[in-house]
Amino acid sequence: xxxxxxxxxxxxxxxxxxxxxxxxxxxxxxxxxxxxxxxxxxxxxxxxxxxxxxxxxxxxxxxxxxxxxxxxxxxxxxxxxxxxxxxxxxxxxxxxxxxxxxxxxxxxxxxxxxxxxxxxxxxxxxxxxxxxxxxxxxxxxxxxxxxxxxxxxxxxxxxxxxxxxxxxxxxxxxxxxxxxxxxxxxxxxxxxxxxxxxxxxxxxxxxxxxxxxxxxxxxxxxxxxxxxxxxxxxxxxxxxxxxxxxxxxxxxxxxxxxxxxxxxxxxxxxxxxxxxxxxxxxxxxxxxxxxxxxxxxxxxxxxxxxxxxxxxxxxxxxxxxxxxxxxxxxxxxxxxxxxxxxxxxxxxxxxxxxxxxxxxxxxxxxxxxxxxxxxxxxxxxxxxxxxxxxxxxxxxxxxxxxxxxxxxxxxxxxxxxxxxxxxxxxxxxxxxxxxxxxxxxxxxxxxxxxxxxxxxxxxxxxxxxxxxxxxxxxxxxxxxxxxxxxxxxxxxxxxxxxxxxxxxxxxxxxxxxxxxxxxxxxxxxxxxxxxxxxxxxxxxxxxxxxxxxxxxxxxxxxxxxx
RNA sequence: UGGGGGAUCGUCCAACGGUAGGACUACGGACUCUGACUCCGUCAAUCCAGGUUCGAAUCCUGGUUCCCCAGCCA
Length: 562
What we know:
By secondary structure, this protein is an alpha/beta fold. It has 3 domains: 11-263, Rossmann fold; 273-343 and 470-561, CATH 2.40.240.10; 348-460, CATH 2.40.240.10. The protein is built from 13 helices and 25 strands. The protein has helices at 11-21, 43-58, 77-89, 105-117, 128-135, 152-163, 214-224, 240-250, 273-281, 296-302, 306-316, 327-341, 554-561, and strands spanning 30-33, 62-67, 99-100, 121-124, 173-176, 191-195, 210-212, 229-233, 257-261, 344-345, 347-348, 351-356, 365-370, 380-385, 388-392, 412-415, 420-428, 434-442, 458-459, 462-463, 468-475, 502-510, 522-525, 529-539, 542-550. The strands form 6 sheets. The protein has a 7-stranded mixed sheet with strand order 10-23-24-25-21-22-11. A 7-stranded mixed sheet has the order 19-16-17-18-12-15-20, with no helix packed on it. A 4-stranded antiparallel sheet has the order 4-5-6-7. β16 and β17 (420-428) form a beta hairpin. The longest helix is centred in the first third of the chain and has 16 residues, at 43-58. Mean pLDDT is 96; it is low at 1-5. It binds one RNA strand through α5, β6, α7, α12 and β19.
C-alpha cells in the first residue's frame, strides 16, 4: 500500500475515511472506471482514472475497468483496445478481468422484468417527439403517458415481444414509472430500454435488438460488481436520485454511493469527447494520437510521461468547483519529470555552418560529454568535433541586443562540452543573409576556462560531417483562446484553432549518438527543450522528433518584453 | 415563478469555530560550460450585506453571480 500521507487528501477521501470509521461496506473500498468506448481517452479521463485506481490502491481496495457499452451505434472494438492501452500506460492495473456493461445484458433484462412486475415500469408507444412534449419543461410539470397504466401482463408480453424483435426501432420503449411532475426531469419516467435493430455490438454481436440506457445500466452494474464508491463527474449530480431509486426499488444486495467531482478543464484545449471526435473526423488534426491532442495517446506521442501525468493530477486536486487549469501546470510537471529523467543531447534546429579555420582539415577528435549535469549515473558519451560545425542561427547576431551573450562578430562563446571559439568573419549571400561564419578556436579551453578573460555564453553545436539529419516538429497550443469551447465571443472552438500549432523543421542536425534512439525515447536537446523520437513515423528515411515542451526560457521573456 | 451544484491569491488546491497556508505563474536576486536545473526572496485571496461568538473562510439569515439539467447519448 502506498503511503497515504504522500498524497494530498480531498473530499472523496474524507468521505471514505468516514465510511471506514463507521465500518460501512465492511471496510471494503471498491471503485471503477467506466469509459464508453466511443472515442479515445483524454487528460480529463486521466484525472478520473488516477482518482479511481488511486483510491483503490491507497485503501487496499479494488478498481474495475468497465466499458459502459450500451450504445453499439457509437462504439467499437478499436476504442476498447485503445482505452485499455492508455489505462495500462498510465500504470493502472485492472487485474485479470475487464468488465463490460454488456456482460449484464441478461441480468439487466431480468431486473427490468422485475420492475414491470412491481408496476414500476411500462411499455410506452409514444415516439421521441411526443415523449418530449409530454415531458414538460424545466418550469412546467410533464403529463402522464397514455400508456402509463398498461397492466403488468400486457407490459410483460410487450417487453418479451420487443426482445423477440417484433417491433420496429423507435416504436416502443420501456420506461420507469416514477413521477411526471417531478422537479427533477430525470425522474419524469425515464427511458430504460430502446429498440435497435441491425447494429452489431462489439461484444454481444447481433444477440440483442434491445439496449438498456445509461441510468438503468450504470447503477445496476455498480451494484452487481459490489462497487462501494461510484465516482463520477458533476453533470450526473441530478441523476443521483434516479441511481438511488433503481437500487432501492429493486432491492439489490449492494447499494453503492455515487459521489460527483468536477471535471478537468485545461486552458487552450478542449476535453469534450464529441468535439475531439470532430477534430479527428474533419481532419483538423492527424488523428486521435496527434501530439497536439489532449488525448492520452496524443500526450504519449508528444513525449509526456505517465509520471508527469500522475504528478499533474495530484497538483490539480479533486473538488466540486468549476476549474480551468493553466497549461503551465502540465508543462511544469512534464519538465520536472523529464529534467530528472531525460538524458541530454545536442541538436541544431536552425543550422548555421561555421568553419574553425585554425582546426586542421580532415582532423576529428572525440570529446566526452556528461549525459546529465546533475546525475552521474547517466554516464558519458563521446562527441565528434571537427573543422566544420553547425550552430543555431539564433546563437549568432551581427547586431546583438542588450545583454546578448552568445556569438557576435569578433566575440567569443563557449561551445558546450568543447572549446571557446571567436567569430572572425561573417559570410553572406547576395541577399545579405548570413550563411556561414569563420571562427578560430582556443585549443586551451577544453575543460577549463580561458586565461585572463571571461566567456559568458555557452551554445550547442554538432559536427557537420557526423550529424544526423532529422525532421523536428514544434508544437504550440491547439487553440488560441484559453477556453475555446466557451469563449463567449460568438465563435466556436473551430474558429479558435491555432493555425500555427504545428511547425515542421525539415533540416535539423542531431549529434550522432542519437542514431541509437528508440521509438518514444525522450531527450533533452540542451538549450532547446524536451524532444522524443516519434514512435509512429519517419520522414523520407529521416527520424522525426516531436517537441514535448520547451525549456523555461527567461531570455525569450526578456526579448518579448523589449 | 422549476430542480441540482459551486464561489478562498492571476490559476489550482488547503485550512472543517482559534496565526488564511502550499503549488503553479509573475517579479527580484544568487549560482551556472544549458539564459536550463537548483537555491534565496517579493507581490498576491476568503463573492456581498447583516447576525451569532471572546474569536467566523468555516455557523445562521438575506442577496449576488457562475455552472449543470427538458436524448430512445453517456
